[in-house]
């Protein structure tokens, strides 16, 4: 250590006595001297800006805005004061907005309008997320079906940085030790191994990034959503987003492609000649869209029972009906069966007294189903249906592949799956996935990946049954709604695979994060110390 210290001191002495160091020092002194003798420095030092006419008018304008929108102003101040020291204060917030307008207006004069709007949206998003980190989660919930994966991942990283800045500035951190987290980490570790040992590591790395983004959102939700108001707002954003998707799907069904342009694998024209189209909207595939609605509709239904205001109840009811209509127009047999199962699980978990209500709603709903939907559902076990036949071929081919790769799989992602699948395929079509979640996990990550996933599902439903006994109606309803959504998704996943698609993959992990939040809120309401497995003060 003494020799190393002598060497460092010698190097510093040589640098300080060198000509280069002296020239740099003289240059810095000259620059600082010019700045201190300049007009701008004296203007700032004399506080001329604070006394100027423009400054006073700007403060007057922002004051008028706050008078016109008192609730918004109060909410902004509340976020800054409640979320810990070191965050942006109210006056700085308005100056920041003004600066954003100027910074985006200047380049708008030199570049096209779309690029200028993109820059403005990006800068405004950064400003709002760093001012109110929770807004990143709400924005992600709203934009999830519509934005690209790169934008969604970037928003997640930005929100994580904003949350980290809050913590560094002195914000409160509540450690979470839920029993669900260990299976999440085990499954994630298996995915890492499957990516490294993949037959196509580069392609697997890209698809692995979807899981990384999803887990980032999961941990952000666990740490940032710390009360039922924030949780309701997050789930409300998911419901509003679903309303926009449903409206787009209905429009897509009536004004989209014709039957001639419809994908041949989506419907058998001989068995279902009356089906002229299937809604797909921004998901580009009716089965993926159906999986999305299976996850979202039960949550929206549980929110109807949770919210207090009649207006919000009618709004959520309208969203649920709109989404249900769009689900029917997908003509997805797995999606429709999954939805019915999801609502049945919701009713069973909420309590036996809700089962008659479920059966009554199911009977009434069946009367309103078009005959084309009923005919479509009746072909689910028809071995003459082309889509049924090709699924059986895919499953047989995948099982043959699993026999050779059962231990570690071929690697994460659809590209790695296709790279090996063509050797085993029974027909001439190379499929991107196995059309079965459980076979896909076996083929990608081997027996360890499937075991880790099943362990995760076991721990989740262990939490579900623990929350059934909660004394809080809010937690009971959301617990039942999300449990139903997950159950419907898992049933539909027997016939399809949607986790490869980033919109469904991220949403699925967001709901897992919501479960941990429910567990945390339930323990907090009981005055317990939350440790996930057995909160202290509970079960004694």
Automatic annotation (TrEMBL):
Residues spanning the signal sequence: none
Keyword entries, A-Z: Membrane, Transmembrane, Transmembrane helix
One cellular-component annotation, GO: membrane
Chief subcellular location: membrane
O-antigen ligase-related domain segment(s): 320-454
InterPro entries recorded: O-antigen_ligase-rel_domated, WaaL-like
Localization (cell): Membrane
Topology relative to the membrane: Multi-pass membrane protein
Record field: transmembrane: 92-110, 115-132, 138-163, 175-196, 208-225, 232-251, 289-307, 314-334, 354-374, 405-425, 437-456, 477-494, 500-518
Name the record gives this protein: O-antigen polymerase
Record organism: Desulfofarcimen acetoxidans (strain ATCC 49208 / DSM 771 / KCTC 5769 / VKM B-1644 / 5575)
């Amino acid at each position: 250590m003494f020799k190393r210290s002598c060497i460092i001191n010698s190097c510093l002495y040589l640098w300080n006595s060198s000509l280069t160091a002296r020239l740099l020092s003289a240059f810095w002194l000259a620059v600082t001297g010019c700045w201190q003798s300049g007009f701008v420095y004296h203007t700032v030092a004399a506080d001329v800006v604070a006394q100027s006419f423009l400054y006073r008018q700007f403060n007057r304008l922002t004051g008028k805005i706050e008078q016109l929108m008192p609730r918004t102003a109060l909410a902004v101040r509340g976020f800054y004061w409640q979320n810990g020291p070191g965050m942006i204060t109210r006056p700085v917030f308005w100056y920041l907005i003004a600066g954003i307008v100027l910074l985006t207006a200047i380049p708008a004069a030199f570049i096209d309008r779309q690029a200028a709007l993109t820059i403005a949206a990006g800068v405004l998003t950064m400003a709002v997320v760093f001012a109110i980190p929770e807004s990143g989660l709400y924005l992600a919930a709203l934009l999830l079906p519509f934005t690209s994966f790169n934008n969604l991942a970037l928003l997640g990283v930005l929100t994580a940085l904003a949350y980290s800045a809050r913590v560094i500035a002195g914000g409160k951190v509540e450690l979470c030790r839920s029993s669900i987290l260990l299976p999440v980490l085990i499954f994630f570790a298996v995915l890492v191994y499957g990516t490294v040992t993949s037959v196509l590591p580069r392609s697997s790395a890209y698809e692995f990034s979807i899981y990384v983004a999803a887990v980032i959102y999961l941990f952000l939700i666990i740490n940032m959503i710390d009360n039922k108001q924030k949780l309701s707002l997050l789930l409300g954003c998911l419901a509003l987003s679903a309303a926009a998707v449903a409206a787009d799907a209905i429009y897509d069904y009536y004004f989209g492609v014709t039957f001639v342009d419809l994908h041949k694998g989506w419907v058998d024209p001989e068995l279902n000649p009356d089906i002229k189209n299937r809604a797909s909207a921004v998901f580009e595939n009716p089965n993926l869209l159906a999986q999305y609605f299976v996850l979202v509709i039960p949550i929206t239904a549980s929110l109807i029972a949770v919210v207090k205001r009649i207006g919000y109840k009618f709004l959520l009811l309208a969203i649920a009906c709109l989404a249900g209509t769009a689900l029917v127009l997908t003509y997805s047999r797995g999606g429709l069966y999954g939805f019915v199962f999801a609502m049945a699980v919701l009713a069973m978990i909420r309590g036996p007294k809700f089962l008659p209500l479920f059966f009554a709603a199911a009977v009434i709903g069946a009367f309103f189903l078009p005959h084309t939907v009923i005919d479509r559902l009746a072909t689910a076990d028809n071995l003459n249906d082309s889509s049924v036949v090709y699924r059986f071929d895919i499953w047989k081919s995948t099982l043959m592949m699993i026999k050779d790769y059962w231990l570690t799989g071929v690697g994460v992602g659809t590209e790695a799956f296709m790279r090996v699948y063509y050797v085993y395929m029974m027909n001439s079509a190379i499929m991107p996935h196995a059309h079965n979640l459980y076979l896909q996990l076996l083929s990608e990550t081997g027996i360890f990946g499937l075991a880790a996933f099943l362990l995760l599902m076991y721990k989740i439903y262990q939490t579900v049954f623990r929350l059934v006994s909660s004394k809080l109606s809010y937690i009971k309803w959301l617990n039942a709604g999300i449990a139903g959504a997950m159950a419907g998704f898992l049933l539909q996943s027997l016939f399809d695979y949607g986790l490869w698609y980033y919109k469904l993959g991220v949403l699925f992990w967001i709901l897992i994060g919501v479960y941990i939040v429910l567990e945390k809120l339930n323990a907090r309401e009981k005055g317990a110390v939350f440790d996930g497995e057995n909160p202290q003060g509970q079960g004694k």
